[in-house]
Amino acid sequence: MKPTKNNIIVIRVAAQKETSSGIILKSSQEADRAEVISIGNKVEEVNVGDTVLLNWNQATKIENETYVVPITEVIWIY
After folding, report:
1. How far apart are CA 15 and CA 55, in angstroms?
2. pLDDT recorded at residue 29
3. What distance in Å separates the CA atoms of residue 39 and residue 21, rounded to the nearest whole number?
4. Where are the domains of the chain?
5. Is the dihedral of CA 48, 7, 74, 63 positive or negative?
6. Residue 59 near residue 69, CB atoms below 8 Å
7. Facing residues of 48 across strands?
8. Cα–Cα distance measured from residue 15 to residue 34, given in angstroms and rounded to the nearest whole number
9. Which residues contact 28 (CB under 8 A, 6 or more apart)?
10. How far apart are CA 9 and CA 62, in angstroms?
11. What is the pLDDT of residues 14-61, one digit of tens each?
């Protein structure tokens, strides 16, 4: 998949915490993050493999946990 112009394709990564014994807890306090898997030809702000926080209201679901999002909706790059 290759997004157009100023769009990126991301996979949603649910926020989670791990206890000292290895139990993974989903936290409702943390926002879901996303990993960038593809970028449009005009995107310069992020790279493939970056983890980002974004405005999920503007994300368009492609399949399963894969979304296309305009680069302007990226709030934070980790």
Report:
1. 15
2. 61
3. 38
4. 7-77
5. negative
6. yes
7. none
8. 10
9. none
10. 9
11. 766 777 787 776 665 667 899 999 999 999 999 999 999 999 999 999
- Residue type at 64? N
The dihedrals phi and psi of 73, each to the nearest 5 degrees, come to -95, 0
> Residue 77 corresponds to which tokens in the numbers above?
């790059």
The helix (H) or strand (E) run that includes residue 21 is none
pTM over 0.90: no
37 phi and psi angles, rounded to 5 deg? -115, -15
Q: Which amino acid is at 47?
A: N
CA distances from 61 to 24, 64, 65, 71 (A): 26, 8, 7, 15
Residues 69 and 54: beta-carbon distance below 8 Å: yes
Cα–Cα distance measured from residue 12 to residue 10, given in angstroms and rounded to the nearest whole number: 6
